[in-house]
Amino acid sequence: MNGMAIQSEFEPYVLLEERNRIAEEIHDRICPHLFGIACAVHSVEEDWSGMTEEQKLGQLREIQEAAAAATRELRATIYDLSLSEKGGVSWIHGVESLLASQAKLNGVRIRFRTADSDRRLPIHHQKALYRTIAEAVGNAIRHGASSIIDVKLTLRRCSVTLRIADNGKGFDMDSRPPSKKDSGFGLYNMKALASSLGGNLQIDSSVGSGTRIVVRLPLDQARDERGQTLKNG
C-alpha cells in the first residue's frame, strides 16, 4: 500500500479525533458559562415579583456580563485551537473567568488560589482539573446552596493537588455513594476521570457541614525534569 493510500485510509479517523477534541474544548470552556446564565435566568424568573427595579436591572446586567464572558471564552477557544502547539497556556485564565462569572451570577464568594509557577501541566491534566472545578463548583451552588467556595491548586514536583471546599448544606455520604446513576458529569465521573490519569479523588461531606473534595494527580517526573510538563499560563 502506497503512502497516498495509507493517508486516505486513516484520514477519516484523524478528522473524527480532531472533531471530538474541538467538541471537548467547547464543552469544557463554554458550557459551564451557559449553564450559569441559565441558572441565573431561572432565579430571576422565580424572584421577579419580589425584586425592586434596581435589583432587576442589576441582575440583568450580571447576566449580560456573563454572556459577554462566554463570548470571550468562545473566541479564546477558537484562537487556542488555531495554534499548532498545544500548550493550553491560558487554561488558568479560563478557570478564573469561569469562577468569576459563577460568583457574580449566583451571588456567592469564590476564592481561587494557585501557585505562582512557570511549569506546564499536560493537556489531559488541564482538562481533568477544569472539568472537576466546573462540576464541583456547580454542584456546590445548585445542590449545596453554598455561599462561600474555596478552590486551591497546588503544584509539586511529581504531583498536582486540587482542593475544593464549600460551606453548603452537604449530604450524607453513606446514603449517597458516587454511582453511574449520577446525572451529568457527577461524582462518579469525577472519580473515574482522576483514576484514568493514575490519580484519586476523595470526598468528605456531611449534612450541615459542607463538602470537601481533594483530587491528587501524579505527574511524570522525567518529563518535568526536561522542562516539558507544567505551566500555569
Automatic annotation (TrEMBL):
<dbReference type="GO" id="GO:0000155">
    <property type="term" value="F:phosphorelay sensor kinase activity"/>
</dbReference>
<dbReference type="Pfam" id="PF07730">
    <property type="entry name" value="HisKA_3"/>
</dbReference>
<dbReference type="GO" id="GO:0005524">
    <property type="term" value="F:ATP binding"/>
</dbReference>
<dbReference type="InterPro" id="IPR036890">
    <property type="entry name" value="HATPase_C_sf"/>
</dbReference>
<comment type="function">
    <text>Member of the two-component regulatory system NreB/NreC involved in the control of dissimilatory nitrate/nitrite reduction in response to oxygen. NreB functions as a direct oxygen sensor histidine kinase which is autophosphorylated, in the absence of oxygen, probably at the conserved histidine residue, and transfers its phosphate group probably to a conserved aspartate residue of NreC. NreB/NreC activates the expression of the nitrate (narGHJI) and nitrite (nir) reductase operons, as well as the putative nitrate transporter gene narT.</text>
</comment>
<keyword id="KW-0408">Iron</keyword>
<keyword id="KW-0808">Transferase</keyword>
<dbReference type="InterPro" id="IPR011712">
    <property type="entry name" value="Sig_transdc_His_kin_sub3_dim/P"/>
</dbReference>
<keyword id="KW-0411">Iron-sulfur</keyword>
<keyword id="KW-0418">Kinase</keyword>
<keyword id="KW-0963">Cytoplasm</keyword>
<dbReference type="GO" id="GO:0046872">
    <property type="term" value="F:metal ion binding"/>
</dbReference>
<dbReference type="GO" id="GO:0016020">
    <property type="term" value="C:membrane"/>
</dbReference>
<dbReference type="InterPro" id="IPR050482">
    <property type="entry name" value="Sensor_HK_TwoCompSys"/>
</dbReference>
<dbReference type="InterPro" id="IPR003594">
    <property type="entry name" value="HATPase_dom"/>
</dbReference>
<keyword id="KW-0067">ATP-binding</keyword>
<dbReference type="GO" id="GO:0051539">
    <property type="term" value="F:4 iron, 4 sulfur cluster binding"/>
</dbReference>
<keyword id="KW-0547">Nucleotide-binding</keyword>
<keyword id="KW-0479">Metal-binding</keyword>
<keyword id="KW-0004">4Fe-4S</keyword>
<feature type="domain" description="Histidine kinase">
    <location>
        <begin position="39"/>
        <end position="221"/>
    </location>
</feature>
<dbReference type="InterPro" id="IPR004358">
    <property type="entry name" value="Sig_transdc_His_kin-like_C"/>
</dbReference>
<keyword id="KW-0902">Two-component regulatory system</keyword>
<dbReference type="GO" id="GO:0005737">
    <property type="term" value="C:cytoplasm"/>
</dbReference>
<protein>
    <recommendedName>
        <fullName>Oxygen sensor histidine kinase NreB</fullName>
        <ecNumber>2.7.13.3</ecNumber>
    </recommendedName>
</protein>
<dbReference type="InterPro" id="IPR005467">
    <property type="entry name" value="His_kinase_dom"/>
</dbReference>
<dbReference type="GO" id="GO:0046983">
    <property type="term" value="F:protein dimerization activity"/>
</dbReference>
<dbReference type="Pfam" id="PF02518">
    <property type="entry name" value="HATPase_c"/>
</dbReference>
